[in-house]
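worker-3 :: picked MotA/TolQ/ExbB proton channel family protein
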Amino acid sequence: MLFNLLILQNNTQETAEGLADGEAVEKSLSIIELITSGGTAGQIIIGILFILLVAATYIYFERLFAIKAASKIDANFMNQIKDHVSNGKIDSAQMLCAQVNSPVSRLIAKGITRIGKPLADINTAIENAGRLEIYGLEKNVSILATISGAAPMIGFLGTVVGMILAIFELANAGGSIQMDVLAGGLYTAMTTTVAGLIVGIVGYIAYNHLVVKTDKVVYQMEANSLEFLDHLNEPI
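worker-3 :: tokens ->
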């Protein structure tokens, strides 16, 4: 009986130790704790990267909505313009362009104001107006390219700072290597690197997506401008 009690007590102790070890192994670390464990330097760099992420997100959605609005145009718009021009109703064509708020309508309106002049002059006026429209579409998009390139470098700066802190703590540890001494610097190094790469990847994808969307609008502008010039060049 006493032997059985001793065995039961040992099993209970082993089970408790196993549970304690299991809890230690399963210990998790939240993102907030991971950031705060990196020290002041890591928190400053993470804060800068967070501001860049917010700026990149705002620019992306603001430009995306603006480009989508610029690409919307009535499929029958050019047919109506050509009918008005063919019938000599220049004022009606200009009024129609004024009612449609899009880059294409503004280009056509610029060309209509030059009707009667040589075709080369009309083409030049449309091209100049097109450059202004493209500049407006690409507003602040270059900032996304800057963020996509600068964010990883800022993250790597945090990596270097973290390694310097880890080496400094190690040098002051009196020769004894302990992970808790190195933890702060390593947290700074790793968290800033990950954050910088995340912000850089988001900025890079957002930039390229806006470039593709802008190119589609530019193609639409060129196609409608050529259609308008071809109509003016048709023999009467």
